[in-house]
Amino acid sequence: MCNLYSNTMPQDAMRDLFKVAAERDRLGNFEPMKAIFPRYDGVVCRTGEDGERELVTAHWGFLMPQVSKKTGKPILPKAINNARDDKIRSSRFWKKSFEDRRCLIPATAFCEAKGKKPATFYWFSVTDEQKPEPFVFAGLWNRFKGNYRDEYVEIDTYTMVTSTPNELVKPVHPDRMPVILPEDAQTTWMDGSPDEAFEALKVFPAEKMQVLDKGEDMKSEPS
Questions:
Q1: What is the DSSP letter of 25?
Q2: Rounded to the nearest 5°, which phi and psi values hold at 84?
Q3: Domains of the chain: which residue ranges?
Q4: Separation of alpha carbons 25 and 165, rounded Å
Q5: Residues in the chain with pLDDT < 50?
Q6: pLDDT tens digit sequence for 72-130
Q7: Are 42 and 27 a contacting pair, CB within 8 Å?
């Protein structure tokens, strides 16, 4: 799973990466995001209503309404920021988004914790000739309409797909890691059939990644 990542990619680089026309860039004056946590906004590339790609900001975490066990009254909706790859085709919570609303999530690093009191936080990145490179997570998006933070909202939300960890991440988080899509799988994830998109969810090679930093403090970004 992943509860923290960064996206410091320049705005024009994201447009080039995802082949998004400037007029379909909805980010405004984008500022580098050194620390993106659940319940905050991040950037996604999705297919618009006209079938063309667009860059937008959205709330990280699909929102699930909840009620208090004590009072039976609505409380803050749960934000579900990771979707297991083995559940996205069968779970009613994910299935429609997997079939119709897949997206790409740009990133420059992600963080996983190991241990407790104190935990050690590891920042991972993709490398090209030992240099950190921007990369892309497989994501899903959805529209939420309802009460959130004491008001009625209509907002776009997203989640990242997780799968089996590779040999670099596994010692830190033995169960899950975000699905990183190589360039040749990104179009399939966005535009392919559900069967084709599911087949694109592969374990990213450990040899193409590195640990950028680690420590006992949850830093806002790797040093």
A1: B
A2: -70, 135
A3: 5-215
A4: 33
A5: none
A6: 888 899 999 999 999 999 999 999 999 999 999 999 999 999 988 788 999 999 998 77
A7: no
CATH assignment of 5-215, among 3.40.50.300, 1.20.1250.20, 3.90.1680.10, 3.40.50.10420: 3.90.1680.10
220 DSSP assignment = S
The separation between the first and the last C-alpha atoms of the chain, rounded to the nearest angstrom, is 22
pLDDT of 222 reads 62
Q: How far is CA 44 from CA 104, 137, 168, in A?
A: 6, 10, 26
Residue count of the chain: 223
Element (H, E) at 141: strand 135-148
The gap from C-alpha 11 to its chain's centroid, in whole angstroms, comes to: 17
Instruction: Read off the DSSP letter of residue 1.
Output: -
Q: What is the pLDDT of residue 208?
A: 96
Tell me what pLDDT residue 72 has: 85
Instruction: Check residue 73 and give its pLDDT.
Output: 85
Confidence (pLDDT) at 91: 97
Residues 6+ apart with CB under 8 A from 119: 113, 216, 218
